[in-house]
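Weekly puzzle thread! Below is a chain. First person to post its structure in C-alpha coordinate form gets bragging rights.
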Amino acid sequence: MTALPHEPMPTPADVATDPQGPTWQVLRGVNRGDRVYRTILTTVAMSLPLFLIILVTQLVVSAWSSIRRFGFHFLWTSVWDPVAEVFGAAPMVFGTIASSLLALLIAVPLALGVAIYLTEFAPKWLRQPVSFLVELLAAIPSVVYGLWGIFVLIPFLRSYVVPPLRAAFGWTPMFSGVFYGNSLLAGSVILAIMIVPYIAAVSREVLLAVPGTQREAALGMGATRWEAVWTAVVPYGRSGLVGAVILGLGRALGETMAVTMLIGNRHDISLSVLQPAYTMAAAIANECSEATTRLYLSALFEVGLLLFVITVLVNAAARLLIWRVARGTAVGSRAL
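Winning reply:
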Protein backbone atom coordinates (compact mmCIF):
# COMPACT_ATOMS: atom_id res chain seq x y z
CA MET A 1 0.00 0.00 0.00
CA THR A 2 1.44 3.33 -1.08
CA ALA A 3 1.33 6.33 1.26
CA LEU A 4 -0.50 9.39 0.06
CA PRO A 5 1.62 12.50 -0.11
CA HIS A 6 0.99 14.97 2.69
CA GLU A 7 -0.75 18.24 1.73
CA PRO A 8 1.27 21.36 2.55
CA MET A 9 0.14 23.27 5.62
CA PRO A 10 -1.50 26.63 4.77
CA THR A 11 0.60 29.65 5.61
CA PRO A 12 -0.85 32.75 7.39
CA ALA A 13 -0.63 34.60 4.09
CA ASP A 14 -2.77 31.92 2.41
CA VAL A 15 -5.37 32.13 5.19
CA ALA A 16 -5.48 35.94 5.00
CA THR A 17 -5.97 35.89 1.22
CA ASP A 18 -8.48 33.05 1.25
CA PRO A 19 -11.82 34.68 0.30
CA GLN A 20 -13.67 31.96 2.23
CA GLY A 21 -11.67 32.10 5.47
CA PRO A 22 -12.88 33.87 8.60
CA THR A 23 -9.53 35.63 9.07
CA TRP A 24 -9.95 37.28 5.68
CA GLN A 25 -13.38 38.53 6.68
CA VAL A 26 -12.01 40.08 9.88
CA LEU A 27 -9.07 41.72 8.10
CA ARG A 28 -11.24 43.12 5.33
CA GLY A 29 -13.90 44.33 7.77
CA VAL A 30 -16.74 42.33 6.25
CA ASN A 31 -17.53 40.49 9.43
CA ARG A 32 -21.17 40.99 10.39
CA GLY A 33 -20.37 42.27 13.88
CA ASP A 34 -17.86 44.76 12.46
CA ARG A 35 -20.39 46.03 9.95
CA VAL A 36 -23.03 46.57 12.63
CA TYR A 37 -20.56 48.30 14.93
CA ARG A 38 -19.28 50.53 12.13
CA THR A 39 -22.84 51.42 11.08
CA ILE A 40 -23.83 52.39 14.63
CA LEU A 41 -20.73 54.55 15.11
CA THR A 42 -21.20 56.24 11.74
CA THR A 43 -24.85 56.99 12.52
CA VAL A 44 -23.99 58.48 15.90
CA ALA A 45 -21.13 60.54 14.45
CA MET A 46 -23.26 61.93 11.63
CA SER A 47 -26.31 62.68 13.79
CA LEU A 48 -24.81 65.82 15.39
CA PRO A 49 -23.77 67.51 12.09
CA LEU A 50 -27.15 66.53 10.68
CA PHE A 51 -28.90 68.08 13.67
CA LEU A 52 -26.87 71.27 13.17
CA ILE A 53 -27.88 71.42 9.50
CA ILE A 54 -31.54 70.89 10.41
CA LEU A 55 -31.33 73.62 13.04
CA VAL A 56 -29.80 76.16 10.65
CA THR A 57 -32.28 75.25 7.94
CA GLN A 58 -35.22 75.69 10.29
CA LEU A 59 -33.91 79.06 11.48
CA VAL A 60 -33.43 80.31 7.92
CA VAL A 61 -36.84 79.08 6.76
CA SER A 62 -38.62 80.56 9.78
CA ALA A 63 -36.78 83.87 9.48
CA TRP A 64 -37.14 84.15 5.71
CA SER A 65 -40.19 86.46 5.85
CA SER A 66 -38.29 88.96 8.00
CA ILE A 67 -35.13 88.62 5.90
CA ARG A 68 -37.05 89.29 2.70
CA ARG A 69 -39.00 92.19 4.24
CA PHE A 70 -36.23 94.13 6.01
CA GLY A 71 -33.00 92.87 4.45
CA PHE A 72 -29.77 94.20 5.93
CA HIS A 73 -31.62 97.18 7.44
CA PHE A 74 -32.68 94.77 10.17
CA LEU A 75 -29.14 94.96 11.58
CA TRP A 76 -28.93 98.74 12.04
CA THR A 77 -32.56 99.78 12.52
CA SER A 78 -33.61 100.63 16.08
CA VAL A 79 -37.40 100.56 15.73
CA TRP A 80 -39.13 97.53 17.25
CA ASP A 81 -42.88 98.04 16.81
CA PRO A 82 -44.94 94.82 16.72
CA VAL A 83 -48.18 96.78 16.13
CA ALA A 84 -46.88 98.45 12.97
CA GLU A 85 -44.83 95.34 12.13
CA VAL A 86 -41.58 97.28 11.86
CA PHE A 87 -38.60 95.51 13.38
CA GLY A 88 -34.93 96.35 13.81
CA ALA A 89 -32.40 94.50 15.93
CA ALA A 90 -29.68 97.15 16.33
CA PRO A 91 -30.27 97.75 20.09
CA MET A 92 -30.25 93.98 20.72
CA VAL A 93 -27.02 93.48 18.80
CA PHE A 94 -25.45 96.45 20.58
CA GLY A 95 -26.60 95.24 24.00
CA THR A 96 -25.35 91.71 23.37
CA ILE A 97 -21.91 92.81 22.23
CA ALA A 98 -21.55 95.59 24.83
CA SER A 99 -22.55 93.40 27.77
CA SER A 100 -20.26 90.57 26.63
CA LEU A 101 -17.24 92.82 26.10
CA LEU A 102 -17.77 94.57 29.44
CA ALA A 103 -18.06 91.16 31.10
CA LEU A 104 -14.76 90.14 29.52
CA LEU A 105 -13.15 93.35 30.76
CA ILE A 106 -14.10 92.35 34.30
CA ALA A 107 -13.64 88.57 34.08
CA VAL A 108 -10.37 88.18 32.14
CA PRO A 109 -8.00 89.71 34.76
CA LEU A 110 -9.72 87.74 37.53
CA ALA A 111 -9.73 84.44 35.62
CA LEU A 112 -6.12 84.75 34.42
CA GLY A 113 -5.03 85.70 37.92
CA VAL A 114 -6.70 82.60 39.33
CA ALA A 115 -5.16 80.38 36.63
CA ILE A 116 -1.65 81.79 37.12
CA TYR A 117 -1.88 81.51 40.89
CA LEU A 118 -3.10 77.91 40.78
CA THR A 119 -0.42 76.75 38.32
CA GLU A 120 2.60 78.74 39.49
CA PHE A 121 2.29 80.00 43.06
CA ALA A 122 -0.33 78.07 45.04
CA PRO A 123 0.85 75.26 47.35
CA LYS A 124 -0.06 71.79 46.18
CA TRP A 125 -2.54 71.16 48.99
CA LEU A 126 -4.51 74.25 47.94
CA ARG A 127 -4.59 73.80 44.16
CA GLN A 128 -7.23 71.10 43.84
CA PRO A 129 -9.74 72.53 46.37
CA VAL A 130 -9.57 76.02 44.84
CA SER A 131 -9.79 74.63 41.30
CA PHE A 132 -12.84 72.61 42.28
CA LEU A 133 -14.54 75.61 43.87
CA VAL A 134 -13.84 77.84 40.87
CA GLU A 135 -15.16 75.27 38.41
CA LEU A 136 -18.19 74.71 40.65
CA LEU A 137 -19.38 78.20 39.69
CA ALA A 138 -20.15 76.81 36.22
CA ALA A 139 -22.62 74.31 37.71
CA ILE A 140 -24.85 76.96 39.32
CA PRO A 141 -28.08 77.49 37.30
CA SER A 142 -28.35 80.87 35.64
CA VAL A 143 -31.69 81.61 37.29
CA VAL A 144 -29.95 81.33 40.67
CA TYR A 145 -27.40 83.87 39.48
CA GLY A 146 -30.30 86.08 38.44
CA LEU A 147 -31.97 85.90 41.85
CA TRP A 148 -28.67 86.57 43.58
CA GLY A 149 -28.11 89.52 41.29
CA ILE A 150 -31.51 91.05 42.07
CA PHE A 151 -31.31 90.75 45.85
CA VAL A 152 -27.55 91.07 46.46
CA LEU A 153 -25.65 92.45 43.46
CA ILE A 154 -27.92 95.36 42.53
CA PRO A 155 -28.14 96.73 46.12
CA PHE A 156 -24.36 96.38 46.43
CA LEU A 157 -23.79 98.26 43.17
CA ARG A 158 -26.26 100.96 44.15
CA SER A 159 -24.68 101.55 47.57
CA TYR A 160 -20.95 100.93 47.12
CA VAL A 161 -19.92 100.86 43.46
CA VAL A 162 -21.96 103.32 41.42
CA PRO A 163 -21.60 106.41 43.69
CA PRO A 164 -17.76 106.45 43.53
CA LEU A 165 -17.85 105.72 39.80
CA ARG A 166 -20.25 108.59 39.17
CA ALA A 167 -18.19 110.89 41.38
CA ALA A 168 -15.03 110.13 39.43
CA PHE A 169 -16.35 109.56 35.91
CA GLY A 170 -19.83 111.09 35.93
CA TRP A 171 -18.74 113.66 33.35
CA THR A 172 -18.24 110.89 30.76
CA PRO A 173 -21.11 109.41 28.69
CA MET A 174 -20.37 105.94 30.07
CA PHE A 175 -21.51 106.84 33.61
CA SER A 176 -24.19 109.42 32.93
CA GLY A 177 -27.84 109.18 33.94
CA VAL A 178 -29.66 107.83 36.94
CA PHE A 179 -28.87 104.31 38.15
CA TYR A 180 -32.07 102.45 39.03
CA GLY A 181 -30.55 98.98 39.38
CA ASN A 182 -31.35 96.90 36.32
CA SER A 183 -28.77 98.08 33.84
CA LEU A 184 -26.05 97.15 31.42
CA LEU A 185 -23.56 97.28 34.30
CA ALA A 186 -25.52 94.80 36.43
CA GLY A 187 -25.98 92.42 33.51
CA SER A 188 -22.29 92.61 32.62
CA VAL A 189 -21.14 91.94 36.18
CA ILE A 190 -23.33 88.85 36.48
CA LEU A 191 -22.04 87.69 33.09
CA ALA A 192 -18.46 88.19 34.27
CA ILE A 193 -19.07 86.01 37.32
CA MET A 194 -20.60 83.30 35.14
CA ILE A 195 -17.77 83.12 32.59
CA VAL A 196 -14.87 83.25 35.07
CA PRO A 197 -14.82 79.44 35.62
CA TYR A 198 -14.71 78.75 31.87
CA ILE A 199 -11.81 81.11 31.20
CA ALA A 200 -9.96 80.07 34.36
CA ALA A 201 -10.29 76.33 33.66
CA VAL A 202 -9.06 76.53 30.07
CA SER A 203 -6.27 78.97 30.99
CA ARG A 204 -5.13 76.65 33.75
CA GLU A 205 -4.87 73.72 31.35
CA VAL A 206 -2.96 75.86 28.86
CA LEU A 207 -0.45 76.99 31.51
CA LEU A 208 -0.01 73.43 32.76
CA ALA A 209 0.87 72.40 29.20
CA VAL A 210 3.80 74.84 29.06
CA PRO A 211 7.06 72.83 29.30
CA GLY A 212 9.01 73.16 32.51
CA THR A 213 12.10 74.08 30.53
CA GLN A 214 10.54 77.47 29.82
CA ARG A 215 10.42 78.26 33.53
CA GLU A 216 13.85 76.76 34.19
CA ALA A 217 15.47 78.78 31.41
CA ALA A 218 14.02 82.04 32.67
CA LEU A 219 14.99 81.29 36.28
CA GLY A 220 18.47 80.25 35.16
CA MET A 221 18.93 83.64 33.49
CA GLY A 222 18.26 85.37 36.79
CA ALA A 223 14.55 86.12 36.49
CA THR A 224 12.37 86.16 39.56
CA ARG A 225 9.41 83.80 39.92
CA TRP A 226 6.97 86.42 38.67
CA GLU A 227 9.27 87.53 35.83
CA ALA A 228 9.61 83.92 34.69
CA VAL A 229 5.82 83.59 34.56
CA TRP A 230 5.28 86.90 32.79
CA THR A 231 8.12 86.63 30.26
CA ALA A 232 8.30 82.88 29.58
CA VAL A 233 5.16 81.00 30.61
CA VAL A 234 2.39 83.41 29.59
CA PRO A 235 3.87 84.31 26.16
CA TYR A 236 4.35 80.62 25.37
CA GLY A 237 0.66 79.90 25.92
CA ARG A 238 -0.55 83.14 24.37
CA SER A 239 -2.71 81.52 21.69
CA GLY A 240 -4.34 79.19 24.18
CA LEU A 241 -5.08 82.03 26.59
CA VAL A 242 -6.66 84.05 23.80
CA GLY A 243 -8.71 80.99 22.89
CA ALA A 244 -9.90 80.73 26.49
CA VAL A 245 -10.97 84.37 26.43
CA ILE A 246 -12.86 83.94 23.17
CA LEU A 247 -14.49 80.80 24.55
CA GLY A 248 -15.70 82.87 27.50
CA LEU A 249 -16.98 85.48 25.05
CA GLY A 250 -19.00 82.83 23.25
CA ARG A 251 -20.48 81.73 26.57
CA ALA A 252 -21.40 85.32 27.43
CA LEU A 253 -23.06 85.97 24.07
CA GLY A 254 -25.57 83.16 24.52
CA GLU A 255 -26.46 83.63 28.20
CA THR A 256 -30.18 84.25 28.65
CA MET A 257 -31.91 84.01 32.00
CA ALA A 258 -29.55 85.85 34.35
CA VAL A 259 -29.05 88.67 31.85
CA THR A 260 -32.78 88.93 31.22
CA MET A 261 -33.38 89.38 34.94
CA LEU A 262 -30.74 92.09 35.41
CA ILE A 263 -30.11 94.05 32.21
CA GLY A 264 -33.37 96.01 32.19
CA ASN A 265 -34.75 94.87 28.80
CA ARG A 266 -35.16 98.32 27.23
CA HIS A 267 -35.01 98.42 23.43
CA ASP A 268 -32.69 101.38 23.20
CA ILE A 269 -29.04 102.19 22.53
CA SER A 270 -27.32 104.12 25.31
CA LEU A 271 -23.62 104.73 25.85
CA SER A 272 -24.10 104.75 29.61
CA VAL A 273 -23.53 101.46 31.42
CA LEU A 274 -25.90 102.67 34.15
CA GLN A 275 -28.91 102.56 31.82
CA PRO A 276 -31.00 99.50 30.87
CA ALA A 277 -30.18 97.62 27.69
CA TYR A 278 -31.40 94.60 25.72
CA THR A 279 -29.79 91.47 24.35
CA MET A 280 -30.81 89.10 21.58
CA ALA A 281 -31.21 86.15 23.95
CA ALA A 282 -33.30 88.23 26.35
CA ALA A 283 -35.55 89.43 23.52
CA ILE A 284 -36.27 85.88 22.39
CA ALA A 285 -37.00 84.75 25.95
CA ASN A 286 -39.27 87.71 26.68
CA GLU A 287 -41.21 88.08 23.44
CA CYS A 288 -41.47 84.63 21.89
CA SER A 289 -44.72 83.87 23.70
CA GLU A 290 -46.15 87.27 22.70
CA ALA A 291 -45.45 86.93 18.96
CA THR A 292 -48.97 86.70 17.56
CA THR A 293 -48.25 87.57 13.93
CA ARG A 294 -46.21 85.71 11.38
CA LEU A 295 -43.83 88.60 10.72
CA TYR A 296 -43.29 89.20 14.45
CA LEU A 297 -42.35 85.57 14.97
CA SER A 298 -40.16 85.63 11.86
CA ALA A 299 -38.29 88.66 13.21
CA LEU A 300 -37.57 86.80 16.44
CA PHE A 301 -36.30 83.84 14.42
CA GLU A 302 -33.99 86.20 12.55
CA VAL A 303 -32.68 87.50 15.87
CA GLY A 304 -32.04 83.88 16.87
CA LEU A 305 -30.26 83.26 13.56
CA LEU A 306 -28.00 86.27 14.13
CA LEU A 307 -27.19 85.10 17.64
CA PHE A 308 -26.47 81.59 16.35
CA VAL A 309 -24.09 82.84 13.66
CA ILE A 310 -22.21 85.15 16.05
CA THR A 311 -21.87 82.46 18.71
CA VAL A 312 -20.70 79.80 16.26
CA LEU A 313 -18.08 82.09 14.76
CA VAL A 314 -16.75 83.09 18.17
CA ASN A 315 -16.60 79.50 19.46
CA ALA A 316 -14.99 78.29 16.22
CA ALA A 317 -12.26 80.92 16.59
CA ALA A 318 -11.66 79.84 20.18
CA ARG A 319 -11.46 76.16 19.25
CA LEU A 320 -8.98 76.89 16.47
CA LEU A 321 -6.70 78.80 18.81
CA ILE A 322 -6.83 76.06 21.44
CA TRP A 323 -6.20 73.46 18.74
CA ARG A 324 -3.06 75.35 17.76
CA VAL A 325 -1.74 75.00 21.29
CA ALA A 326 -2.63 71.31 21.40
CA ARG A 327 -0.77 70.75 18.13
CA GLY A 328 2.27 72.55 19.51
CA THR A 329 2.30 75.37 16.96
CA ALA A 330 2.13 78.14 19.57
CA VAL A 331 5.90 78.32 19.89
CA GLY A 332 7.11 80.66 22.58
CA SER A 333 10.65 81.25 21.39
CA ARG A 334 9.60 84.33 19.45
CA ALA A 335 8.18 85.91 22.60
CA LEU A 336 11.24 85.28 24.77
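Puzzle host: Confirmed. Bonus trivia for everyone else. Strands lie at 80-81, 86-87.
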